[in-house]
Amino acid sequence: MRSRLLPVVLVFLALSLGCGDSSTGPDTTGVQALRFETFQRASLEFGQLDMSSGDANRGTVTNQIGLSSPSGAGSGLFYLPDPGNNRVLGYTSFPTTNGAAADFVVGQTGFGFNQSGTSIQRFRRPTACAVSDGKLFVTDYFNNRVLIWNSLPTGPDSADVVVGQPDFTTASSGLSSTKLGGPIDLAVAGGKLFVAEYGNHRVLIWNTIPTTNGAPADVVVGKPDFTSGGAGPTASITGNVSAVWSDGRRLVVTDEYNARVLIWNSVPTANGVPADIVLGASDFESEGCCRGGFDNAFDHPSGLASDGYSLFVADTSENRVMIYTPFPRKNNEAASRILGQGAFHRASRNDDNQDGVADAGPSDRTMYLPTGLSIVGRRLLVADQYNNRVLVFDSK
Hints:
The chain is mostly beta strands. It has a single domain, classed as 6 Propeller (Neuraminidase). It is built from one helix and 23 strands. The strands form six sheets. Strands 1-23-22-21 form a four-stranded antiparallel sheet, with no helix packed on it. A four-stranded antiparallel sheet has the order 5-6-7-8, with no helix packed on it. It has a four-stranded antiparallel sheet with strand order 9-10-11-12, with no helix packed on it. The longest helix has 6 residues.
């Protein structure tokens, strides 16, 4: 049986990118599909000044450039979750040089601070974000909540709405339609809010964006009702959901506990609706088969993105991103290309020469426990967690 044990830090930092405006989902009309080559070199990075460095906060104290276990990014007013520093960095435009300094910070009173808290302005590990219709959404993992700003903040502004808690000073977890347990990722599409709960092994869906604190979810995915636990695997039971993606029509989740990805061809409108497609396993009753060396298997998948044509999955413990082109249509499909490794049978971290042994440091095409993914324009962003950076790959 495949080991379900995960490095302790990853349990708390399996993260997801997603701060772009996703209110309507990808519109592929007249848009050319993104294309990336196996073992492609990144063109840009956040958090480091060069592609060979990987220290948290650039090896110094909390600052305006460095990152600690990065998790997310977006477009327009550009937000980058920095969970290890309990903050979200903000950029007035998408940077064009390595190690660009942020323009403002959310969650701290300045760039030199790293204070956690449970309040209207503080985080305890913000892991993912989204921008939609002029609102900012952030998952606050250890506070078991999602914070919503009704207008885009440009500094340590107070949130307007809290989801998963009755107020801004409560942080308890729970198993109901109004409580969250380890919210780790989110998506906003088609006017709906989707929240992936790592601790509760499920996805909650709000059919309209919450406007009041503690608003109940309308639908639960991965469980038959709002009070049930369990981790599967079946077509309708999930475990340790670490990422969620939707375009308002389809729904995709990473079932990290069972080493698989589940796809619903239409967004569920009732509790416990079974998935239509499973990746990484031969059927819905089987967990992912094994570690390494395969083009159709995962080891702790924990990030998702799509341009509508392809599906991108961060295969975290294999130090790679799996690319499925076209978007999967049947069970157990094989990936077509990968980033982070030169071949599907390779899995070592920071292995630029592909000899199966980790190098002393990263390069512009290697990864060390990649987690979050995001698409910004014609770029794919990868949160390269243990290299404390976000890599930017330009479409060919």
